[in-house]
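Hi Prof. W.,

I finally got the Ubiquitin-like domain-containing protein prediction working! I wasn't sure whether to trim anything, so I left the full sequence exactly as given:
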Amino acid sequence: MELFQEALARLVQDPLLCDLPPQVTAEEIGSQVALEYGQAMTVRVCKADGETVPVVVVQNASVLELKKALRRHIQLRQARQGGVQHLSWKYIWRTYHLTYAGEKLADDRKKLREYGIRNRDEVSFIKKLRK
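And this is what came out:
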């Protein structure tokens, strides 16, 4: 394990991967490499509090894959910062919609490109209205 950590520390010093945090995961390295080779894209998710979270997904990702990537990103960030350890994602998706250009991303199976979402586009959380 110690050898792996040393190799990972050297790897993160590479100019291509220098943006990654010191406690990087193999998944984050894979995402960054895929991004550099054009196999992935960054979708900026704007939270209700105004914070923007960059999420990396594959080029042909679905809405569900974006939601899962957002969840992984937030969980990793919370673990590193020592913040709230548990969020109810069931509650979040029951309370908020993801939207792009005023359109709800309602169908989890639909591809992001079908909604017109491209690299570096911004998706927002919008609170659902009560019926």
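The mean pLDDT is 87. Does that look reasonable to you?

Thanks,
D.
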